[in-house]
Design brief:
The protein is α+β, with helices and mostly antiparallel strands. It has helices spanning 4-22, 32-49, 51-59, 120-129, 145-154; strands at 62-87, 90-117, 132-133, 140-142, 164-175, 184-188. The chain contains five helices and six strands. It has one domain (4-188).
């Protein structure tokens, strides 16, 4: 029989292992060409399925796209993937998104997400933060499927009051719960 303390230590060790595995490693990162290709395909698909994203793209100061995030867990979990920041349709930087979690969870899932930076201040925060944890800093609104249709029709400079709007897309696999809150975004330099 295991004591609660022993289980807590085991869970902590597993959580730290997941965090280490998700920390960006330059040698393990995809190439710039691979990331650029995947970002372009992901955005095309997002615009096709969610017109509100296209409306935001026309007004955004920058778009940070993570085309494929892998999330896996069995009590202790982690997620991670690489993406690119676009300004006026051109890549200006590459980033890694990583998170570790602990709790009632089981499964494997992939998904992508795109963050539309609506203000210069939000974009500057990404550049100066040196490792930005989502949920700390600029305000973020997650645009889900239910609100996306109405959102696209009412999006104007006076109604777009948040710093960042995020869309989660291309969800595949089985895992309870999905989110980007607590993800850490770090600039990387792929080859």
């Amino acid at each position: 029989m295991h004591t609660p303390t022993r289980l807590s230590v085991l869970a902590l060790v597993l959580a730290l292992a997941a965090l280490v595995l998700l920390t960006p490693a330059p040698t393990a990162a995809a190439s710039k060409a691979e990331i650029d290709r995947d970002v372009k395909i992901a955005l095309q698909q997002l615009y096709k399925t969610t017109p509100a994203a296209k409306v935001l793209a026309e007004k955004a100061k920058g778009i940070l796209v993570f085309p494929s995030i892998l999330k896996a867990g069995l009590i202790v979990g982690g997620q991670g993937g690489n993406g690119a920041l676009l300004k006026k349709g051109k890549t200006v930087g590459y980033y890694n998104s990583a998170a570790a979690s602990y709790g009632l969870q089981a499964g494997v899932q992939t998904f992508g997400y795109a963050m539309f930076f609506m203000t210069d201040a939000a974009l500057a925060y990404l550049d100066k933060s040196g490792g930005w944890e989502i949920g700390v800093g600029p305000s973020i609104v997650i645009v889900d499927k239910e609100t996306a249709a109405a959102f696209g029709k009412t999006a104007t400079s006076s109604t777009l009051q948040s710093d960042i709007y995020a869309f989660i897309f291309s969800q595949k696999g089985l895992m309870a719960g999905l989110g980007i809150q607590g993800s850490k975004i770090t600039r990387i330099e792929p080859k």
